[in-house]
Give the backbone structure.
Amino acid sequence: QERLPAGYVVRPLARTDNQVRSNTSFLKTLEVLTTIGTISDEDFQKRFQYLKQRNDEYFTIVIEDMNVPATTPRSATSSSPSLVTPGRGKIVAAGTVLVERKFIRQLGLVGHIEDIAVSADQQGKKLGLRIIETLKAIGQQQGCYKVILDCSEKNVPFYEKCGFERRGVEMGWYV
Ligand code: ACO
């Protein structure tokens, strides 16, 4: 497995990752994907709680660069570099695997990878690869018989490097 750059950690999304006053914001990281809209902290907390109640179904992970202190450090005395405190650094990458429960294949489970995002200034450091490796491992641990995703043509080489192969065609219906 590729080593992460020094001071970078992979961890689950945390309740505090919407701290817009600091530079840790998870939502900001997603801006490389599409428009995010205006999401209040209350809205974020509601969605976070929804996902947390389904923690065998939704797995959202982030990579945090702990070398970058948050703009509003909690306490100068309590900080220990070896302790991973969510929100101390800056979120630089994110991704989700959603575990679908099927009837076919003897009540089979399928992992769906969604919303893979690496901040523009952090791309090319194998962070995307690490996010995908971690989500694949989660899918496997959960018992999925396959993990699938939809992507644009330009991302095909990236996903091939991550061990995926072309299967079928993605179709969409936009309301
Ligand atoms: N074309 C060819 N090769 C690529 C590309 C590309 N577009 N992107 C990455 N690679 C290769 C890298 O060169 C590297 O190869 P190597 O191991 O031989 O050196 C390997 O793939 C791994 O690359 P990473 O450094 O891990 O890629 P990165 O961290 O930049 O993440 C990602 C890739 C997620 C596509 C990132 O560029 C990104 O966030 N882009 C914008 C948002 C986006 O398109 N997200 C994916 C949407 S699809 C979905 O969410 C299911």
User: Anything to note?
Assistant: The chain is about 25% helix and 20% strand.
